[in-house]
Amino acid sequence: MARKSYWEQTYYPQPTEYEIRSNAAQTARKASKKGQILHPVILSGRTIAKSWWGKAWCQNLEQYADFETRLPRGQKYVRSGAVVDLQIQKGKIAARVQGTRKTPYKIEIRISPLSQQRCDEIMDRCTARVDTLENLLSGSFPESMKDVFLGDGGLFPTPKEISFSCSCPDWAVMCKHVAAALYGVGARLDEDPTLFFSLRGIDTGRFVDVVIANRVEAMLSNVNRPSSRILQDADLTELFGVV
Ligand SMILES: [Zn+2]
User: Fold this and answer.
1) What is residue 148's predicted lDDT score, i.e. its pLDDT?
2) From residue 17, how far is each of 22, 37, 73, 143 by CA, in Å?
3) What's the gap in Å between 151 CA and the centre of ligand 1?
4) Structure confidence by residue, pLDDT tens digits, 191-205
5) If we measure between CA atoms, which residue out of 104, 113, 108 comes closest to residue 93?
6) 94 CA from centroid of ligand 1 (Å)
7) Which of 81, 85, 157, 188 gives 96 a disulfide partner, CB atoms 3.0 to 4.6 angstroms apart?
8) Confidence of residue 143 (pLDDT cuts 50, 70, 90)
9) Contact 123, 210 (CB under 8 A)
10) How remote is the CA of residue 173 from the centroid of ligand 1, in Å?
């Protein structure tokens, strides 16, 4: 778990849920006047992520925290609608998170792209299970794909593969705004699990094409291998002269 520190006693004012919501509403109004399109994280209830993959992401992000108090604050923030904008791109998450002041803080999270070797290993795991790939194409991930994401060599970034920056004065590496943005990613993954691949710099369409091509190749090479049934038939032909 994240360590506790004497310096944890630094007091930053904690805004109420009402303050966050009214600041967020003001930011949305300003953006709309300027013609800016924001992608806020809006939860339908208290639950941040409902799918197993969204929940797994939220659990995984806890290991990035250098101070554990930032985690419940981040959860409170995302539930209060503080994540007024969240954009997930290839290897990058850009977010704006509302806090104490009127102007939201700017957050940038960078994730290292997968190495070619790790990408190949993940492709091999997927090639072995093409039925789950069909689910991937339809936007749902069965729980049997869990090992593609979790553990060593999975899609989830390790602490070394992720970096954070926030414009707030908190010196914690993972401040509550970064935590809120990361929880927001968990909620967003519920809607579109293929974002997992985008985050690691992988184009999902191309990934699926290559996996399917490899699977077809493997199936064809099995077809060309003589089966015991064919050998049996050949033996019979030899024995009885049946053509
Ligand atoms: Zn911050």
Assistant:
1) 76
2) 9, 24, 11, 34
3) 28
4) 888 888 889 888 888
5) 108
6) 13
7) 85
8) confident
9) yes
10) 9
Residues with CB under 5 A from ligand 1 (ion): 166, 168, 175, 177
Q: What is the pLDDT of residue 109?
A: 96
Residue 9 has pLDDT above 70, yes or no: no
- Fill in the DSSP letter of residue 58: H
End-to-end Cα separation, the chain, in angstroms: 73
The Å distance, Cα 106 to ligand 1 centre, comes to 8
- The answer to whether the CB of 189 falls within 8 A of the CB of 196 is yes
**Extents of the domains making up the chain:** 6-240
How many A from CA of 179 to the centre of ligand 1? 9
- If you measure from the C-alpha of residue 110 to the centroid of ligand 1, how many angstroms do you get, rounded to a whole number? 15
Whole-structure pTM value: 0.81
